[in-house]
Write a structure and sequence with these properties.
Low-confidence stretches: none
Shape: flat
Structural class: mainly alpha
CATH class: Mainly Alpha
CATH superfamily: Tetratricopeptide repeat domain
Order of helices and strands: HHHHH
Number of strands: 0
Largest sheet: none
CATH architecture: Alpha Horseshoe
Mean pLDDT: 88
Oligomer: single chain
CATH topology: Serine Threonine Protein Phosphatase 5, Tetratricopeptide repeat
Distance between the termini: 32 Å
Number of domains: 1
Strand content: under 5%
């Protein structure tokens, strides 16, 4: 495994596997825990390949899924700065913005003291 630690694709596939394991049938708590683990793995991959824009986009997406939209925002902005013509980056950034707006509307409509919605 030490030899594989230099290969960013190992971190990409491991992070994606963690997300896929809880894709549909997991509890919100299990999904959140797997997403947090995947974020750690994607960050390790990003350290190995700091110019690879895949890792920050994966992290940003998971932050959004966890409702941590403000943490995702600079990662998306950086991706857009690096590749302003990328339709894929623009699309995931729009999804992020729409999700954040929906979350804010849901929070504003909730009664005072209500718990925030669980992660998707």
């Amino acid at each position: 495994l030490q030899h594989e630690e230099k290969k960013p694709q190992v971190f990409f596939h491991l992070g994606r596997a963690l997300v896929a394991m809880v894709a549909e049938n997991a509890s919100p708590e299990a999904r959140a825990a797997a997403y947090e683990d995947a974020i750690v793995v994607f960050r390790q991959g990003w350290q190995v390949a700091p110019l690879d824009t895949t890792f920050p986009l994966e992290i940003a997406f998971l932050y959004g899924e966890l409702g941590r939209f403000a943490e995702a925002e600079p990662l998306y902005r950086d991706a857009l700065t690096r590749d302003p013509c990328s339709d894929a980056v623009k699309q995931v950034y729009r999804y992020h913005q729409n999700s954040w707006q929906k979350s804010m509307r849901a929070h504003d409509a909730a009664p005072p003291g209500a718990d925030p919605p669980p992660p998707k």
